[in-house]
Amino acid sequence: MTIKEARVRLKKMEISPLELVKVCKAQFEEKHDINAFITPMYDEALKDAEKLINFDDYKPLWGIPIAIKDNIAIKGVRLTCGSKILASYKSLFDATVIENLKKAGAIVVGKTNMDEFAMGSSGEYSAFGSTKNPLDRSLVPGGSSSGSAASVAAGMALGSLGSDTGGSVRQPAAFCGLVGIRPTYGTVSRYGLVAFASSVDQIGPIGTSVEDAALLLNVIRSYDKNDSTSVEFLDSNVPKMNEIRIGIPVELEELPIQNEIKTKLEEAKKILEQAGAKFVKISLPSLKYSISTYQLITPSECSANLARFDGVRYGLQVSSDNLSTQYKKTRSEGFGSEVTRRILVGTYALSEGFFDAFYLQACRMRAKISHELYETLSICHAILTPTTPTTAFTLDSVQDPLDMYACDMLTIPQGLAGIPAISVPFGKDTKGRPIGIQLSGPAFSENILIELGKVLEE
Amino acid sequence: MKVSKIYLEKVASLAKIEIESNESIQDDLVRLLEHFEELSRVDLSFFEPMSLPPQCRLKFRSDEPQTGIKQTEALKEAPKTNCKFYTVPKIIG
Q: Which of A30, A173, A317, A457 could pair covalently with B79 via S-S, beta carbons 3.0-4.6 A apart?
């Protein structure tokens, strides 16, 4: 059931919020092995649902069960970020996106599993165990918003929120056959999102349809004075389809993309052409440096953002007589291997003697990649690519960090440039694994991307 | 540029993380950093380093006191306190 369908049925009183939550809870209990949640909240959700009697048309998510990634703060609820170091920490306040959801009448059904501190692309890096893909338990659901995607794909919620830094909303959406949106940087408040890479992180929606994801985005998006990088969303007119120009980067031909995904990309192109859009050849020569750029900038930022986890003010503490030793033991025991790797890469990149060659050089490359994107998007309305180079892979099959980072090669550039992107499910490969097609656009072009996404969806 | 394991241990000390006995992480780090070095071979002198997307300009709020989390609430989640302050092992002496 989509959110749209649920709203119609709620309005007609064919179903009540209580019944809707019970349906989602039943799915959770039946498919518990997927491990989509760190903190299920169905009991609280049932109590919240009982209070909702008269349908409120002014509340766009009235009675709708929504799952929340566990790096987004809800007051009084555990906020673990998928990490041992925060295993028993409870948030002292609501994130702005949670306030927006509550004002819209949404019912939160739980905090979803995730790769630790949003660092991962499979859902296998959580201290609370791996999440499985509901469509095939032997596969990963993608990451880092693994539980957010899995919970919606399994019917445990009708929509969810994740966070997207290098593709962590779009990639799991693609792997689970769902729609995921990465908003324009700054348009969705990061207040209450535990920071991974502050200049790249954005909270984004996951839904079973483009319309659902767009509705969720509209609810969570707001200017917020508590977020110093917050910007007001600028609505833009959507051109007629025959005025729309879309680019496909020529560099895709050199990338190791699964053949069936290439075929689907061609099909997507034909569908958009039949709808009236014109295609232009574009080039993004610096695309090949995206992964290195991202994997120097984001670890550098995370090394600063995660310095606060020292066991003094909150979270795990491994005591010692010496403060420095206490810090080291707490952090070494509390952080998993991927987080440790990235903190160390970032600390190295920022250290004296290496700052210019690593961090600053990566920031210059970020400027170059972004410049190429902005230039390209000044002559076309959108860029069409696959969301991921492969479909969902089997659990435990990718061990090399560099291979794992390569999963994000098509979703990283948008984060670096701060531009929006949508992933839309578009068929499956011969093994039945969902394929996602991605549309990226200039800042504030979400309305155009959503309309193009609807064309593909149909 | 060869990445030195001795320097990596110093970096780990800066990050307050132990890696002395973890050969696997050290090997991973060496490989990753040597891979990312590809960026240093590109001439990017024409580009200013970018730290934020262009639509964002950091804004300051007015210099007026605002309410925040109370002391008692902030201490609630701390592992060790003396009711008013966070407590840590002795630092001096």
A: A317
Q: What range does the domain containing A46 cover?
A: 1-458
| Structural domains counted in chain B | 1
Q: Which amino acid is present at A255?
A: L
- Which residues in A311-386 belong to E strands, given as ranges? 382-386
Q: What ipTM was assigned to the predicted interfaces of this complex?
A: 0.93
Write the CATH number for A451.
3.90.1300.10
Q: Does the residue B15 lie in any domain?
A: yes
Tokens for A405, please give them. Answer: 């980072």
Distance of CA A245 to the CA centre of its chain: 27
Residue B90 lies in a domain: no
Which residue among B47, B55, B77 sits closest to A185, beta carbon to beta carbon? Answer: B55
Task: Indicate the number of domains in chain A.
Answer: 1
In chain B, the residue whose alpha carbon lies closest to the alpha carbon of A233 is B55
Residue B82, in any domain of the structure: no
Q: How would you classify the pairing of strands A202-207 and A278-282? A: unpaired
Residue carrying the six token digits 């960090």: A401
Nearest CA in chain A to B53: A418
Which residues of A are designated catalytic?
69, 144, 168
Domain coverage including residue B34: 5-40
**Which positions in chain A touch B36 (Cβ < 8 Å)?**
292, 295-296, 345, 358, 362
Query: Shortest CB distance from B14 goes to which of A292, A323, A347?
Result: A347
Strand order in the sheet with A434-440: A37-40, A107-112, A65-69, A159-164, A202-207, A179-182, A421-428, A434-440, A382-386, A245-249, A278-282
Examine the pLDDT at A147 and tell me if it is beyond 90: yes
Bridge partner list, A112:
A37, A69
pLDDT score for B93: 66
Q: What are the distances in angstroms from CA A444 to CA A186, A187, A247, A378? A: 10, 8, 18, 13
Mean pLDDT to the nearest integer, A236-241: 92
Domain-located, residue B91: no
